Amino acid sequence: MAETKKLFIKTYGCQMNVYDSERMAEAMGGAGYEATETAEDADMILLNTCHIREKAAEKVYSELGRMKALKTDRPNLKIGVAGCVAQAEGEEIMRRQPAVDLVVGPQAYHRLPEMEEKIRSGARALDTDFPEEDKFEKLKSRPKAKRAPAAFLTVQEGCDKFCAFCVVPYTRGAEVSRPVDRILTEARDLVERGVREITLLGQNVNAYHGAGGDGGSKTLADLIWQLDKVDGLERIRFTTSHPNDMQEDLIEAHGTCSKLMPYLHLPVQSGSDKILKRMNRSHTAESYLRVIERIRAARPDILLSGDFIVGFPEETEADFQATLDLIKAVEYGQAYSFKYSTRPGTPAAERPLVDDAEATDRLQRLQALLTQQQRDVQNRMVGREVSVLLERQGRDPGQMVGKSEYLHSVHLDAANHQIGEIVRVKVVQSMTNSLTGVLV
User: What are phi and psi of 186, to 5 degrees?
Assistant: First the structure.
């Protein structure tokens, strides 16, 4: 039998990249590779990259410089770059870093086994196409190994919104939704392998419009109700959403579908209508707040999460104060916030930047408010009972860590329980980024 080769994948960025890395590992498993936790003993290294963060490409080149040293000592080591930086940079990666053997975009990673065969012959391989074939269908065979109790499942890719700061439409392409039957098949497979909770992924997941098998397309709410019927699947989440696609049937599902968890990540980016227009967000602060009202009317206890960009070109102090006002009106349980940084090729890249010191000051003030809101929300959880999906062992003997319905990490003594169980827990303490509880 051929000797098993070892594959090391380093994943950057979003949950979709985590999912993609899993699928790449599965694809390469068919080519005789098994996963390893360290780059030093790998026969192939794949960097699955993200283009969202500041200077993402330069950070990848820096990492490749470190990987090059490994290849100097082990000439047979193969190095590949995948993901959104690969899609954006393409041949430039190979030009700047000769140690790279292959470059593959996020829509073509199902072709990795053929690319690996090519580079083993001494050639280099590049594939940043947007192929017509369904990559998920090409990768439909998955190993039956036991899985962690919570898993990601990509149902939609790409985006048609073209926000002025975002590279996703250029690196992931136009919005494409997977057919309902294929998603259900993958979900049942995950449940058979021990998964109790599935998070549905998409760059714009609530714009989902997959084929339903009856000649028409289905909404995300339709898909959720189909998943609700899957025996053994206990929890459903989805991310990331756009405010303009929070349709009434999806809002209603939050109030009526018991498996749909009371947590929603709904990015707004700014509270200033002027800045939202310059961002090409196609919603206003007022329309966003009305969506929040409708969601909370359907599910009063829902925990809301958001994204914010400060220091966007032309943002004034008044614009920033409008963002703070919106945050105060909503009260977020969790949030992600960033100082604007230029993404080459996006419309905003050509606009004059806000003074860096001012942008940094605004980010600190915004994060202070968000941190206080998170603490307040967590403090109000003390004394309440929650359901916790046990996901891993804690650091102390008998301790376990899991997630509540509201996506809070909860630490508890559960020595007689197993990973994958859902237990009732009374919250007794709020920590910095987690809760402590006791079994009910």
Answer: -65, -40
Per-state percent for the chain, helix, strand, coil, to nearest 5:
40, 25, 40
Q: Which residues, including other chains, have CB under 8 Å from residue 1's CB and lie 6 or more apart? A: none
Burial group, residue 45, by CB count within 10 angstroms (0-12, 13-18, 19+): buried
- Compute φ and ψ for 165, nearest 5 degrees: -100, 0
Tokens (6 digits) for 394: 């804690």
CATH of the domain spanning 385-439, picked from 3.20.20.300, 2.40.50.140, 3.30.540.10, 1.10.10.10:
2.40.50.140
Domain ranges of the chain: 5-127, 144-261, 264-381, 385-439
Lowest mean pLDDT among 39-53, 247-261, 355-369: 39-53
Strand 422-430, strand 409-413: pairing: unpaired
Torsion of CA 305, 203, 315, 333, to 10 degrees: 0
Residues 59, 57: Cα–Cα separation, whole Å: 5
pLDDT at 94 over 70: yes
* pLDDT tens sequence across 257-284: 999 999 999 999 999 999 999 999 999 9
Q: Which is it for strands 217-218 and 385-393: parallel, antiparallel or unpaired?
A: unpaired
Encoding tokens for residue 338? 């960033």
Contact 48, 67 (CB under 8 A): no
Give the integer Cα–Cα distance in Å for 395 and 306.
Answer: 30
Residues 304, 267 contacting (CB under 8 angstroms): no
Sign of the dihedral through C-alpha 356, 357, 359, 360 = positive
Amino acid at 406: Y
* CATH of 5-127 among 3.40.50.12160, 3.90.550.10, 3.30.950.10, 2.60.120.10: 3.40.50.12160
CB atoms within 10 A of CB 376: 12
195, two tokens: 């998964």
Instruction: Supply 295's token pair.
Output: 């969601």
d(CA 137, CA 275): 40
Contacts of 245 (CB under 8 A, 6+ apart): 204, 206, 207
Phi, psi (rounded to 5 degrees) for 131:
-65, 155
